[in-house]
Amino acid sequence: MSILNKISTSEGKIAELEYKSILYREEILKIVRHAGAGHTGGSLSCVDILNVLYNHLMDITPSNFSKIDRDHYVHSKGHSVEALYVVLLDQGFFSREELYKIEKYESPFIGHPSNAVPGVEQNTGALGHGLSLTVGMALADKLDGRDNRFFTLLGDGELAEGSNWEACESASHYELDNLVAIIDRNDLQITGLTEDVMSLEPLRDKFEAFGFAVREVNGHQIADLLDIFDQLPFEADKPNLIIAHTIKGRGVSFIENQVHWHHKVPNDDEFQLAMDEFAEAKIAWEQKNG
Amino acid sequence: MGSRLMVMGQPNLIIFAETLHGMAKENHDLLVVTSDSRGSGKLSEFSDDFPDQIIEVGVAEQNLVGVSAGLASMGKHVYAVSPTCFLTTRALEQIKNDVAYSNNPVKLIGISAGVSYGSLGTTHHSLHDYAALLSINNIDIVAPADNLETRKAVKASLDYKKPIYLRFGKRPMPNLHDEDAVFEIGKAIPLMPEKEVYDVVILAIGEPLVPAYHAANTLVEQGYSVDLLSVHTLRPFDENAILESARRSKVVITVEEHSVNGGLGSRTASLLMQNGVFRPMKIIGIPDEYTVTGSQEEIFAHYGITADGIVHTAKMLLEQ
Question: CA–CA separation, A81 vs A93, rounded Å?
Protein backbone atom coordinates (compact mmCIF):
# COMPACT_ATOMS: atom_id res chain seq x y z
CA MET A 1 0.00 0.00 0.00
CA SER A 2 1.29 3.41 -0.86
CA ILE A 3 2.27 5.49 2.11
CA LEU A 4 1.21 8.46 0.07
CA ASN A 5 -2.52 7.81 0.05
CA LYS A 6 -4.49 10.97 0.50
CA ILE A 7 -4.80 11.86 4.15
CA SER A 8 -8.32 11.73 5.48
CA THR A 9 -7.75 12.61 9.12
CA SER A 10 -6.36 16.10 8.64
CA GLU A 11 -7.57 19.03 10.59
CA GLY A 12 -7.14 21.72 8.06
CA LYS A 13 -5.03 22.29 5.06
CA ILE A 14 -1.82 23.36 6.80
CA ALA A 15 -1.69 20.28 8.98
CA GLU A 16 -2.53 18.09 6.02
CA LEU A 17 0.23 19.54 3.90
CA GLU A 18 2.71 19.39 6.77
CA TYR A 19 2.03 15.70 7.09
CA LYS A 20 2.43 15.21 3.37
CA SER A 21 5.83 16.87 3.56
CA ILE A 22 6.97 14.26 6.09
CA LEU A 23 5.73 11.48 3.83
CA TYR A 24 7.31 13.06 0.78
CA ARG A 25 10.68 13.34 2.50
CA GLU A 26 10.48 9.73 3.62
CA GLU A 27 9.72 8.66 0.06
CA ILE A 28 12.56 10.75 -1.36
CA LEU A 29 15.05 8.95 0.86
CA LYS A 30 13.55 5.60 -0.14
CA ILE A 31 13.79 6.39 -3.82
CA VAL A 32 17.37 7.61 -3.60
CA ARG A 33 18.23 4.55 -1.57
CA HIS A 34 16.47 2.24 -4.04
CA ALA A 35 18.04 3.85 -7.10
CA GLY A 36 21.46 4.07 -5.52
CA ALA A 37 21.66 7.61 -6.84
CA GLY A 38 19.90 10.94 -6.57
CA HIS A 39 20.08 14.53 -5.46
CA THR A 40 19.18 14.13 -1.82
CA GLY A 41 19.99 17.61 -0.49
CA GLY A 42 18.20 19.64 -3.16
CA SER A 43 15.14 17.40 -3.25
CA LEU A 44 14.70 17.79 0.50
CA SER A 45 15.07 21.56 0.25
CA CYS A 46 12.42 22.10 -2.44
CA VAL A 47 9.80 19.51 -1.55
CA ASP A 48 7.67 21.79 0.64
CA ILE A 49 7.40 24.23 -2.25
CA LEU A 50 6.30 21.47 -4.63
CA ASN A 51 3.89 20.20 -2.01
CA VAL A 52 2.07 23.54 -1.81
CA LEU A 53 2.22 24.12 -5.57
CA TYR A 54 0.70 20.76 -6.51
CA ASN A 55 -1.67 20.28 -3.60
CA HIS A 56 -2.95 23.80 -3.19
CA LEU A 57 -2.13 26.16 -5.99
CA MET A 58 -1.69 24.72 -9.45
CA ASP A 59 -4.45 23.36 -11.63
CA ILE A 60 -2.44 20.40 -12.95
CA THR A 61 -3.92 16.93 -12.69
CA PRO A 62 -3.57 13.64 -14.56
CA SER A 63 -6.98 14.28 -16.12
CA ASN A 64 -6.20 17.76 -17.49
CA PHE A 65 -2.52 17.23 -18.24
CA SER A 66 -3.00 16.68 -21.97
CA LYS A 67 -4.80 20.02 -22.28
CA ILE A 68 -3.11 23.36 -22.90
CA ASP A 69 -5.70 25.39 -20.98
CA ARG A 70 -4.42 24.75 -17.45
CA ASP A 71 -1.57 25.86 -15.20
CA HIS A 72 1.91 24.70 -16.18
CA TYR A 73 5.09 23.82 -14.30
CA VAL A 74 8.73 23.53 -15.39
CA HIS A 75 11.25 21.93 -13.03
CA SER A 76 14.24 24.02 -13.98
CA LYS A 77 16.46 22.66 -11.20
CA GLY A 78 16.14 19.31 -12.87
CA HIS A 79 18.63 17.48 -10.68
CA SER A 80 16.19 17.60 -7.76
CA VAL A 81 13.96 15.22 -9.64
CA GLU A 82 13.21 12.88 -6.74
CA ALA A 83 11.10 15.59 -5.07
CA LEU A 84 9.13 16.01 -8.29
CA TYR A 85 8.64 12.25 -8.70
CA VAL A 86 7.28 11.92 -5.17
CA VAL A 87 4.78 14.74 -5.58
CA LEU A 88 3.65 13.54 -9.04
CA LEU A 89 3.23 10.04 -7.60
CA ASP A 90 0.97 11.47 -4.93
CA GLN A 91 -1.06 13.29 -7.58
CA GLY A 92 -1.68 9.94 -9.29
CA PHE A 93 0.35 10.51 -12.45
CA PHE A 94 1.90 7.04 -12.21
CA SER A 95 2.10 4.08 -9.90
CA ARG A 96 4.64 3.49 -7.19
CA GLU A 97 5.61 0.29 -8.99
CA GLU A 98 6.48 2.25 -12.13
CA LEU A 99 8.45 4.84 -10.16
CA TYR A 100 10.50 2.16 -8.44
CA LYS A 101 11.94 1.13 -11.80
CA ILE A 102 13.93 4.34 -11.43
CA GLU A 103 17.36 4.31 -13.08
CA LYS A 104 16.73 0.80 -14.41
CA TYR A 105 17.22 -0.19 -18.05
CA GLU A 106 14.59 1.46 -20.27
CA SER A 107 12.87 3.18 -17.35
CA PRO A 108 11.58 6.71 -18.10
CA PHE A 109 12.38 7.57 -14.48
CA ILE A 110 15.92 8.84 -14.88
CA GLY A 111 18.01 11.26 -12.87
CA HIS A 112 16.47 14.35 -14.46
CA PRO A 113 12.90 15.13 -15.55
CA SER A 114 11.86 13.67 -18.89
CA ASN A 115 8.50 14.14 -20.57
CA ALA A 116 8.42 10.38 -21.05
CA VAL A 117 7.20 10.48 -17.42
CA PRO A 118 3.52 11.39 -17.08
CA GLY A 119 3.22 14.81 -15.46
CA VAL A 120 6.57 16.12 -16.66
CA GLU A 121 6.17 18.92 -19.16
CA GLN A 122 9.67 19.83 -20.33
CA ASN A 123 12.92 17.89 -20.29
CA THR A 124 15.32 19.65 -17.96
CA GLY A 125 18.57 18.89 -16.22
CA ALA A 126 20.96 21.25 -17.96
CA LEU A 127 20.76 24.37 -15.83
CA GLY A 128 19.54 27.74 -17.01
CA HIS A 129 16.87 26.44 -19.41
CA GLY A 130 13.65 26.42 -17.43
CA LEU A 131 13.02 30.14 -17.23
CA SER A 132 13.23 30.72 -21.00
CA LEU A 133 10.91 27.78 -21.61
CA THR A 134 8.46 29.16 -19.06
CA VAL A 135 8.62 32.62 -20.62
CA GLY A 136 7.68 31.13 -23.99
CA MET A 137 4.82 29.14 -22.49
CA ALA A 138 3.49 32.11 -20.49
CA LEU A 139 3.74 34.35 -23.54
CA ALA A 140 1.72 31.89 -25.63
CA ASP A 141 -1.02 31.91 -22.99
CA LYS A 142 -1.12 35.72 -23.00
CA LEU A 143 -1.25 35.82 -26.81
CA ASP A 144 -4.22 33.49 -26.72
CA GLY A 145 -6.01 35.52 -24.07
CA ARG A 146 -6.07 32.80 -21.43
CA ASP A 147 -5.33 33.36 -17.77
CA ASN A 148 -3.37 30.32 -16.65
CA ARG A 149 -0.25 30.55 -14.51
CA PHE A 150 3.23 29.33 -15.33
CA PHE A 151 5.51 28.20 -12.55
CA THR A 152 9.15 27.29 -12.59
CA LEU A 153 11.49 26.30 -9.79
CA LEU A 154 15.12 27.33 -10.06
CA GLY A 155 18.09 26.42 -7.95
CA ASP A 156 20.22 29.21 -6.54
CA GLY A 157 23.47 27.78 -7.91
CA GLU A 158 21.69 27.62 -11.28
CA LEU A 159 21.46 31.41 -11.38
CA ALA A 160 25.10 31.72 -12.44
CA GLU A 161 23.97 30.56 -15.88
CA GLY A 162 23.70 33.71 -17.99
CA SER A 163 20.74 32.37 -19.95
CA ASN A 164 18.57 33.02 -16.87
CA TRP A 165 19.18 36.71 -17.17
CA GLU A 166 18.32 36.72 -20.87
CA ALA A 167 15.05 35.09 -19.86
CA CYS A 168 14.50 37.69 -17.10
CA GLU A 169 14.78 40.49 -19.64
CA SER A 170 12.06 39.00 -21.81
CA ALA A 171 9.80 38.12 -18.85
CA SER A 172 9.62 41.74 -17.79
CA HIS A 173 9.67 43.16 -21.33
CA TYR A 174 6.52 41.18 -22.11
CA GLU A 175 5.01 41.97 -18.66
CA LEU A 176 4.40 38.33 -17.87
CA ASP A 177 2.48 38.64 -14.62
CA ASN A 178 1.25 35.10 -15.27
CA LEU A 179 4.80 33.80 -14.72
CA VAL A 180 5.97 32.75 -11.28
CA ALA A 181 9.63 31.89 -10.76
CA ILE A 182 10.62 30.41 -7.43
CA ILE A 183 14.21 30.29 -6.25
CA ASP A 184 15.08 27.40 -3.95
CA ARG A 185 17.51 29.56 -2.00
CA ASN A 186 19.31 26.97 0.10
CA ASP A 187 22.64 28.83 -0.16
CA LEU A 188 24.54 25.73 -1.23
CA GLN A 189 25.70 24.29 -4.51
CA ILE A 190 27.81 21.26 -5.28
CA THR A 191 31.13 22.91 -4.43
CA GLY A 192 30.06 24.87 -1.37
CA LEU A 193 28.28 28.06 -0.34
CA THR A 194 26.88 29.98 -3.29
CA GLU A 195 28.43 33.12 -1.88
CA ASP A 196 31.86 31.50 -1.93
CA VAL A 197 31.56 29.81 -5.32
CA MET A 198 30.06 32.77 -7.19
CA SER A 199 28.24 35.31 -5.12
CA LEU A 200 24.59 35.88 -5.94
CA GLU A 201 23.75 38.63 -3.50
CA PRO A 202 22.12 41.08 -3.58
CA LEU A 203 19.76 38.60 -5.20
CA ARG A 204 16.51 40.42 -4.53
CA ASP A 205 17.90 43.66 -5.92
CA LYS A 206 19.04 41.92 -9.06
CA PHE A 207 15.61 40.51 -9.84
CA GLU A 208 13.92 43.77 -8.98
CA ALA A 209 16.32 45.58 -11.30
CA PHE A 210 15.29 43.13 -14.03
CA GLY A 211 11.67 44.12 -13.50
CA PHE A 212 10.30 41.34 -11.30
CA ALA A 213 7.93 41.78 -8.38
CA VAL A 214 9.88 39.98 -5.68
CA ARG A 215 8.73 38.43 -2.41
CA GLU A 216 10.71 36.38 0.09
CA VAL A 217 9.38 33.53 2.16
CA ASN A 218 10.48 30.74 4.43
CA GLY A 219 10.39 27.86 1.97
CA HIS A 220 9.62 25.25 4.61
CA GLN A 221 6.74 26.93 6.48
CA ILE A 222 3.58 25.64 4.81
CA ALA A 223 1.48 28.47 6.23
CA ASP A 224 3.89 31.07 4.88
CA LEU A 225 4.06 29.42 1.47
CA LEU A 226 0.25 29.26 1.27
CA ASP A 227 0.08 32.90 2.23
CA ILE A 228 2.62 34.12 -0.30
CA PHE A 229 1.20 32.05 -3.15
CA ASP A 230 -2.29 33.34 -2.39
CA GLN A 231 -0.99 36.89 -3.00
CA LEU A 232 -0.22 36.15 -6.65
CA PRO A 233 0.02 38.12 -8.86
CA PHE A 234 2.10 40.46 -6.74
CA GLU A 235 2.03 43.54 -8.96
CA ALA A 236 0.28 44.39 -12.20
CA ASP A 237 2.20 43.67 -15.40
CA LYS A 238 5.29 42.33 -13.63
CA PRO A 239 6.60 38.78 -13.58
CA ASN A 240 6.60 37.27 -10.10
CA LEU A 241 9.65 36.00 -8.28
CA ILE A 242 9.69 34.28 -4.93
CA ILE A 243 12.96 33.79 -3.08
CA ALA A 244 12.15 30.78 -0.93
CA HIS A 245 14.73 30.58 1.85
CA THR A 246 15.36 26.91 2.43
CA ILE A 247 17.78 24.50 4.06
CA LYS A 248 19.47 21.99 1.82
CA GLY A 249 18.72 18.54 3.19
CA ARG A 250 15.84 19.86 5.31
CA GLY A 251 14.13 17.30 7.52
CA VAL A 252 17.03 14.96 8.22
CA SER A 253 19.31 16.38 10.92
CA PHE A 254 22.60 15.05 9.66
CA ILE A 255 21.88 15.95 6.02
CA GLU A 256 20.84 19.54 6.66
CA ASN A 257 23.28 22.15 5.36
CA GLN A 258 25.89 19.52 4.54
CA VAL A 259 27.38 20.23 1.14
CA HIS A 260 28.53 16.65 0.63
CA TRP A 261 24.89 15.50 0.68
CA HIS A 262 24.29 17.23 -2.69
CA HIS A 263 24.01 13.84 -4.34
CA LYS A 264 25.07 11.41 -1.63
CA VAL A 265 23.14 8.18 -1.14
CA PRO A 266 22.44 7.13 2.45
CA ASN A 267 24.13 3.96 3.67
CA ASP A 268 22.27 1.44 5.84
CA ASP A 269 22.85 3.27 9.09
CA GLU A 270 22.10 6.68 7.66
CA PHE A 271 18.93 5.42 6.01
CA GLN A 272 17.68 3.93 9.28
CA LEU A 273 18.51 7.09 11.19
CA ALA A 274 16.56 9.12 8.64
CA MET A 275 13.57 6.76 8.88
CA ASP A 276 13.70 7.11 12.68
CA GLU A 277 13.61 10.88 12.34
CA PHE A 278 10.59 10.69 10.05
CA ALA A 279 8.84 8.41 12.55
CA GLU A 280 9.51 10.96 15.27
CA ALA A 281 8.25 13.74 13.03
CA LYS A 282 5.01 11.83 12.48
CA ILE A 283 4.55 11.34 16.22
CA ALA A 284 5.18 15.02 16.81
CA TRP A 285 2.66 15.86 14.10
CA GLU A 286 0.06 13.58 15.65
CA GLN A 287 0.60 15.10 19.07
CA LYS A 288 0.23 18.58 17.66
CA ASN A 289 -2.78 17.80 15.53
CA GLY A 290 -4.42 15.34 17.84
CA MET B 1 16.03 18.80 -67.13
CA GLY B 2 19.43 19.18 -68.64
CA SER B 3 21.21 22.32 -69.69
CA ARG B 4 18.95 25.28 -70.23
CA LEU B 5 19.00 28.99 -69.80
CA MET B 6 18.47 29.63 -66.14
CA VAL B 7 16.28 32.47 -64.91
CA MET B 8 17.79 34.39 -62.03
CA GLY B 9 15.56 34.38 -58.97
CA GLN B 10 15.64 35.98 -55.53
CA PRO B 11 17.79 35.28 -52.53
CA ASN B 12 16.22 32.30 -50.79
CA LEU B 13 15.82 34.39 -47.67
CA ILE B 14 13.45 36.73 -49.51
CA ILE B 15 11.41 33.75 -50.70
CA PHE B 16 11.36 32.44 -47.12
CA ALA B 17 10.05 35.79 -45.84
CA GLU B 18 7.46 36.07 -48.64
CA THR B 19 6.22 32.53 -48.11
CA LEU B 20 5.96 33.09 -44.37
CA HIS B 21 4.08 36.32 -44.99
CA GLY B 22 1.61 34.45 -47.16
CA MET B 23 1.07 31.75 -44.55
CA ALA B 24 0.73 34.14 -41.60
CA LYS B 25 -2.53 35.62 -42.86
CA GLU B 26 -4.27 32.27 -42.63
CA ASN B 27 -2.46 30.98 -39.56
CA HIS B 28 -2.74 33.14 -36.51
CA ASP B 29 -0.75 30.60 -34.51
CA LEU B 30 2.23 31.22 -36.80
CA LEU B 31 4.82 33.18 -34.83
CA VAL B 32 8.22 34.51 -35.78
CA VAL B 33 10.78 34.93 -33.01
CA THR B 34 13.81 37.09 -33.71
CA SER B 35 17.02 38.03 -31.92
CA ASP B 36 17.39 41.55 -33.28
CA SER B 37 17.44 39.77 -36.62
CA ARG B 38 14.23 40.80 -38.39
CA GLY B 39 16.15 43.00 -40.85
CA SER B 40 18.75 40.33 -41.61
CA GLY B 41 15.90 37.85 -41.94
CA LYS B 42 14.07 40.07 -44.48
CA LEU B 43 11.15 40.17 -42.06
CA SER B 44 10.58 43.92 -41.77
CA GLU B 45 7.45 43.73 -43.92
CA PHE B 46 6.22 40.75 -41.93
CA SER B 47 6.78 42.77 -38.79
CA ASP B 48 4.81 45.73 -40.17
CA ASP B 49 1.91 43.61 -41.38
CA PHE B 50 1.72 41.10 -38.51
CA PRO B 51 2.97 42.94 -35.42
CA ASP B 52 1.15 40.48 -33.14
CA GLN B 53 2.88 37.52 -34.76
CA ILE B 54 6.50 38.56 -34.27
CA ILE B 55 8.29 38.29 -30.96
CA GLU B 56 11.59 40.01 -30.34
CA VAL B 57 13.99 38.74 -27.69
CA GLY B 58 16.94 40.99 -28.39
CA VAL B 59 20.47 39.81 -29.00
CA ALA B 60 20.01 36.68 -26.91
CA GLU B 61 20.10 33.48 -28.94
CA GLN B 62 19.84 31.10 -26.00
CA ASN B 63 16.65 32.81 -24.93
CA LEU B 64 15.49 32.89 -28.56
CA VAL B 65 15.52 29.12 -28.73
CA GLY B 66 14.27 28.52 -25.17
CA VAL B 67 11.33 30.89 -25.60
CA SER B 68 10.57 29.40 -29.01
CA ALA B 69 10.48 25.92 -27.48
CA GLY B 70 8.09 27.12 -24.79
CA LEU B 71 5.81 28.74 -27.39
CA ALA B 72 5.87 25.61 -29.56
CA SER B 73 4.96 23.43 -26.59
CA MET B 74 1.78 25.50 -26.28
CA GLY B 75 0.72 24.72 -29.84
CA LYS B 76 2.25 27.67 -31.70
CA HIS B 77 3.90 27.29 -35.12
CA VAL B 78 7.17 28.94 -34.24
CA TYR B 79 9.88 30.15 -36.62
CA ALA B 80 13.02 31.07 -34.67
CA VAL B 81 15.06 33.22 -37.04
CA SER B 82 18.67 34.12 -36.41
CA PRO B 83 22.04 34.13 -38.18
CA THR B 84 23.10 30.51 -38.49
CA CYS B 85 26.45 31.13 -36.86
CA PHE B 86 24.82 32.24 -33.60
CA LEU B 87 21.68 30.10 -33.74
CA THR B 88 23.46 26.79 -34.04
CA THR B 89 26.46 27.53 -31.83
CA ARG B 90 25.46 29.90 -29.05
CA ALA B 91 22.13 28.16 -28.58
CA LEU B 92 23.20 24.60 -29.33
CA GLU B 93 22.31 23.33 -25.85
CA GLN B 94 18.85 24.88 -26.13
CA ILE B 95 18.44 23.22 -29.53
CA LYS B 96 19.56 19.89 -28.13
CA ASN B 97 17.49 19.94 -24.94
CA ASP B 98 14.59 22.38 -25.25
CA VAL B 99 13.78 21.68 -28.90
CA ALA B 100 15.05 18.24 -29.94
CA TYR B 101 15.05 16.26 -26.67
CA SER B 102 11.83 17.79 -25.35
CA ASN B 103 10.33 17.38 -28.85
CA ASN B 104 9.03 20.94 -29.09
CA PRO B 105 8.47 21.29 -32.85
CA VAL B 106 10.24 24.62 -33.42
CA LYS B 107 11.28 25.57 -36.93
CA LEU B 108 14.85 26.85 -36.58
CA ILE B 109 15.71 29.21 -39.41
CA GLY B 110 19.43 29.70 -39.96
CA ILE B 111 20.00 32.78 -42.08
CA SER B 112 23.14 33.86 -43.96
CA ALA B 113 24.50 30.36 -43.60
CA GLY B 114 27.89 28.93 -44.49
CA VAL B 115 30.19 31.70 -45.66
CA SER B 116 27.36 33.99 -46.83
CA TYR B 117 28.78 36.72 -44.62
CA GLY B 118 32.08 36.31 -46.49
CA SER B 119 34.58 38.85 -45.30
CA LEU B 120 32.87 39.32 -41.94
CA GLY B 121 35.02 36.39 -40.96
CA THR B 122 34.92 33.18 -39.00
CA THR B 123 32.76 34.56 -36.16
CA HIS B 124 30.00 34.96 -38.73
CA HIS B 125 30.55 31.75 -40.69
CA SER B 126 28.69 28.54 -39.98
CA LEU B 127 30.60 25.56 -41.28
CA HIS B 128 29.75 23.29 -38.37
CA ASP B 129 25.97 23.30 -38.25
CA TYR B 130 25.27 20.16 -40.29
CA ALA B 131 27.77 18.22 -38.19
CA ALA B 132 26.44 19.55 -34.91
CA LEU B 133 22.79 18.97 -35.73
CA LEU B 134 23.34 15.61 -37.44
CA SER B 135 24.74 14.33 -34.16
CA ILE B 136 21.65 15.46 -32.25
CA ASN B 137 18.63 13.21 -32.41
CA ASN B 138 15.14 14.40 -33.41
CA ILE B 139 15.76 17.40 -35.61
CA ASP B 140 15.40 17.29 -39.38
CA ILE B 141 17.85 19.28 -41.49
CA VAL B 142 17.01 20.99 -44.78
CA ALA B 143 19.11 23.41 -46.85
CA PRO B 144 17.06 24.43 -49.91
CA ALA B 145 19.12 25.36 -52.96
CA ASP B 146 16.84 27.56 -55.05
CA ASN B 147 13.64 29.53 -54.73
CA LEU B 148 11.40 26.59 -55.57
CA GLU B 149 12.99 24.35 -52.97
CA THR B 150 12.78 27.20 -50.47
CA ARG B 151 9.13 27.94 -51.10
CA LYS B 152 8.13 24.29 -50.85
CA ALA B 153 10.29 23.63 -47.80
CA VAL B 154 8.84 26.58 -45.91
CA LYS B 155 5.29 25.52 -46.78
CA ALA B 156 6.01 21.96 -45.69
CA SER B 157 7.48 23.17 -42.41
CA LEU B 158 4.30 24.85 -41.16
CA ASP B 159 2.58 21.70 -39.95
CA TYR B 160 5.76 19.70 -39.51
CA LYS B 161 5.28 17.60 -36.41
CA LYS B 162 8.88 17.50 -35.24
CA PRO B 163 11.74 19.97 -34.86
CA ILE B 164 13.19 21.10 -38.17
CA TYR B 165 16.14 23.24 -39.18
CA LEU B 166 16.08 25.25 -42.41
CA ARG B 167 19.29 26.86 -43.65
CA PHE B 168 19.38 29.78 -46.05
CA GLY B 169 22.04 31.81 -47.82
CA LYS B 170 21.61 35.40 -48.86
CA ARG B 171 22.64 35.76 -52.47
CA PRO B 172 20.19 35.66 -55.41
CA MET B 173 19.76 32.15 -56.72
CA PRO B 174 18.93 31.02 -60.23
CA ASN B 175 15.92 28.77 -60.64
CA LEU B 176 17.34 25.30 -61.13
CA HIS B 177 14.11 23.33 -61.22
CA ASP B 178 11.07 23.35 -63.42
CA GLU B 179 8.10 24.89 -61.64
CA ASP B 180 6.39 21.50 -61.47
CA ALA B 181 9.40 19.78 -59.91
CA VAL B 182 8.42 17.56 -57.02
CA PHE B 183 9.89 18.66 -53.69
CA GLU B 184 9.49 16.55 -50.60
CA ILE B 185 11.50 16.85 -47.41
CA GLY B 186 13.85 13.86 -47.34
CA LYS B 187 13.69 13.17 -51.10
CA ALA B 188 16.66 14.13 -53.27
CA ILE B 189 15.75 15.76 -56.59
CA PRO B 190 17.44 14.52 -59.78
CA LEU B 191 18.47 17.27 -62.18
CA MET B 192 19.84 15.23 -65.09
CA PRO B 193 18.14 12.69 -67.38
CA GLU B 194 18.21 9.23 -65.84
CA LYS B 195 20.74 6.78 -67.35
CA GLU B 196 21.62 3.15 -66.80
CA VAL B 197 25.20 4.04 -65.87
CA TYR B 198 27.07 7.21 -65.07
CA ASP B 199 30.69 8.25 -65.17
CA VAL B 200 30.15 10.58 -62.24
CA VAL B 201 27.43 11.36 -59.74
CA ILE B 202 27.44 14.78 -58.12
CA LEU B 203 25.52 15.32 -54.89
CA ALA B 204 25.07 18.90 -53.75
CA ILE B 205 23.26 20.69 -50.94
CA GLY B 206 22.26 24.33 -50.72
CA GLU B 207 23.74 27.13 -52.77
CA PRO B 208 26.65 25.02 -54.15
CA LEU B 209 24.03 23.23 -56.25
CA VAL B 210 24.55 26.05 -58.75
CA PRO B 211 28.23 25.34 -59.57
CA ALA B 212 27.41 21.64 -59.39
CA TYR B 213 24.69 22.16 -62.00
CA HIS B 214 27.03 24.01 -64.33
CA ALA B 215 29.75 21.41 -63.81
CA ALA B 216 27.34 18.58 -64.61
CA ASN B 217 26.29 20.20 -67.85
CA THR B 218 29.88 20.98 -68.86
CA LEU B 219 30.83 17.35 -68.27
CA VAL B 220 27.86 16.17 -70.35
CA GLU B 221 28.88 18.50 -73.15
CA GLN B 222 32.34 16.91 -73.02
CA GLY B 223 30.84 13.47 -73.43
CA TYR B 224 30.63 12.22 -69.87
CA SER B 225 27.55 10.63 -68.42
CA VAL B 226 26.56 12.51 -65.25
CA ASP B 227 23.96 12.29 -62.54
CA LEU B 228 23.23 15.28 -60.31
CA LEU B 229 21.08 15.16 -57.20
CA SER B 230 19.95 18.10 -55.10
CA VAL B 231 20.27 16.55 -51.66
CA HIS B 232 18.48 19.37 -49.86
CA THR B 233 17.72 17.24 -46.81
CA LEU B 234 20.43 15.76 -44.61
CA ARG B 235 17.92 14.25 -42.21
CA PRO B 236 15.95 12.25 -43.14
CA PHE B 237 18.65 11.29 -45.66
CA ASP B 238 17.49 9.92 -49.01
CA GLU B 239 19.63 6.82 -48.72
CA ASN B 240 17.90 4.87 -51.47
CA ALA B 241 18.33 7.56 -54.13
CA ILE B 242 21.97 8.15 -53.25
CA LEU B 243 22.86 4.46 -53.10
CA GLU B 244 21.09 3.79 -56.38
CA SER B 245 22.86 6.63 -58.12
CA ALA B 246 26.28 5.73 -56.70
CA ARG B 247 25.87 2.07 -57.68
CA ARG B 248 25.40 3.13 -61.30
CA SER B 249 28.36 5.48 -61.21
CA LYS B 250 32.15 5.19 -61.48
CA VAL B 251 32.95 8.07 -59.08
CA VAL B 252 31.12 10.19 -56.52
CA ILE B 253 31.50 13.89 -55.71
CA THR B 254 29.74 15.82 -52.96
CA VAL B 255 29.58 19.60 -52.77
CA GLU B 256 28.58 21.67 -49.76
CA GLU B 257 29.06 25.04 -48.09
CA HIS B 258 30.23 23.42 -44.86
CA SER B 259 33.27 21.83 -43.30
CA VAL B 260 34.33 18.69 -45.15
CA ASN B 261 33.97 17.01 -41.76
CA GLY B 262 30.51 15.99 -40.69
CA GLY B 263 28.25 17.21 -43.48
CA LEU B 264 26.88 15.84 -46.75
CA GLY B 265 30.21 14.32 -47.79
CA SER B 266 30.83 12.50 -44.53
CA ARG B 267 27.23 11.33 -44.41
CA THR B 268 27.45 10.04 -47.99
CA ALA B 269 30.81 8.31 -47.47
CA SER B 270 29.46 6.59 -44.39
CA LEU B 271 26.35 5.47 -46.26
CA LEU B 272 28.27 4.12 -49.25
CA MET B 273 30.94 2.32 -47.23
CA GLN B 274 28.42 0.65 -44.97
CA ASN B 275 26.44 -0.57 -47.95
CA GLY B 276 29.41 -1.96 -49.84
CA VAL B 277 29.34 0.69 -52.54
CA PHE B 278 33.04 1.45 -52.88
CA ARG B 279 33.73 4.29 -55.30
CA PRO B 280 36.49 6.84 -55.68
CA MET B 281 35.04 9.87 -53.94
CA LYS B 282 35.81 13.51 -53.25
CA ILE B 283 34.18 15.73 -50.65
CA ILE B 284 34.23 19.33 -51.84
CA GLY B 285 33.68 21.84 -49.06
CA ILE B 286 35.64 23.96 -46.63
CA PRO B 287 38.74 22.09 -45.41
CA ASP B 288 39.93 21.91 -41.82
CA GLU B 289 41.95 25.12 -41.74
CA TYR B 290 41.56 28.80 -40.98
CA THR B 291 39.12 29.79 -43.71
CA VAL B 292 40.62 32.08 -46.33
CA THR B 293 39.34 35.65 -46.12
CA GLY B 294 37.22 37.14 -48.88
CA SER B 295 33.71 37.26 -50.25
CA GLN B 296 31.57 34.14 -50.44
CA GLU B 297 32.40 33.91 -54.14
CA GLU B 298 36.12 34.21 -53.48
CA ILE B 299 36.01 31.64 -50.70
CA PHE B 300 34.11 29.26 -52.99
CA ALA B 301 36.71 29.80 -55.73
CA HIS B 302 39.58 29.27 -53.30
CA TYR B 303 38.28 25.87 -52.25
CA GLY B 304 37.11 24.69 -55.66
CA ILE B 305 33.41 25.10 -55.00
CA THR B 306 33.01 26.24 -58.61
CA ALA B 307 31.92 24.66 -61.87
CA ASP B 308 35.53 24.47 -63.04
CA GLY B 309 36.67 23.08 -59.70
CA ILE B 310 34.04 20.35 -59.76
CA VAL B 311 34.77 19.46 -63.41
CA HIS B 312 38.47 19.26 -62.57
CA THR B 313 37.78 17.06 -59.54
CA ALA B 314 35.56 14.76 -61.61
CA LYS B 315 38.26 14.23 -64.25
CA MET B 316 40.91 13.62 -61.60
CA LEU B 317 38.76 10.97 -59.97
CA LEU B 318 37.99 9.31 -63.30
CA GLU B 319 41.66 9.21 -64.23
CA GLN B 320 42.65 7.51 -60.97
Answer: 15
